[in-house]
Amino acid sequence: MRAPTPESVIDLTTPGTVATRLITVRSAIGHGPTGLSAFDSALQLTGIHNFNLLVLSSVIPPRTEVRVDPSPSPDRPPGDWGDRLYVVMAEHRACAAGETAAAGIGWVQREDEGGRGLFVEHSGSSAVGVRADLEATMSAMTESRGGGFGPLRTLVAETTCDGNQATCALVVAIYGSEPWHQILRD
Fold this sequence. Notes:
Blueprint: E1 21-32, H1 35-46, E2 52-55, E3 59-60, E4 64-68, E5 84-94, E6 100-109, E7 117-124, H2 127-144, E8 153-160, E9 166-178
């Protein structure tokens, strides 16, 4: 089951600036007999389940377009089984009946500098709480960098456990993949 469509659609980089990178933001709600299997189910629904995930902090490089992918069956990112996949990720699991899981990512991009920006991620027991945390964190982060950023964009997923199966809310920003051949030798 896919998560709701995004609260807002991201605009492209500054007019006249050519984006050379694309970061795709996706969300999903996974279900399974355990919290971990529910997480794996959500990974499958976002198309990233056969990668080794490397979770990044919060910086969006210059000349980057951030695009929400609302597709119920998104394409798998380029790369082979087990490759490194660089992501910003928020996930929360609920395993008891009536327990709620929410996860979200927020982002801003500079209005005058060709797409550079920031991501923040939060998770918790309600979408309302996650949105409030995203707003508070991003406000502090942009203020400490002197402002000049565009509006906060967000994608938040929320699910409630029915008691039959665990559930997981997942939101992920996908930067790209890289093979292991530099580190691992055949």
